[in-house]
């Protein structure tokens, strides 16, 4: 069960960092983008390693945790992380 949770957590973090990568690219923040890129690669490597290791062992239950983690990560990144563009639109009206 702990491997399922690891895959879930890694996928959530990967997708949060992936959304932040897009944000940093849009805002032209190179330093933060490069640091974020290191985190994305480390988390991606760990997530794929554990997922494939379980799949090669015949454990197909890792798939829902992998997909679920990516969905939850995108949701967290899109709803809980500050959206500058949305705040500007709210400031100036519709």
Task: Lay out the secondary structure.
Layout: H1 2-26, H2 30-56, H3 62-79, H4 84-92
Helix pairs in contact: 1-2, 1-3
List its traits.
single chain, 94 residues, mainly alpha, 84% helix
Give a written overview of the molecule.
There is one protein chain. This protein is mainly α. It has one domain (2-92). Helix content is 84%, strand content 0%. It contains four helices and no strands. Helix 1 packs antiparallel against helix 2 (30-56). The longest helix is centred in the middle third of the chain and has 27 residues, at 30-56. The model has no long low-confidence stretch (mean pLDDT 89).
What would you say about this model in short?
This protein has 94 residues and is an all-alpha fold. The chain has 4 helices and no strands. It has one domain.
Q: What gap, in angstroms, lies between the N and C termini?
A: 47 Å
Structural class by SSE content: mainly alpha
**Largest sheet data:** none
Number of helices: 4
Uncertain regions spanning at least 5 consecutive residues:
none
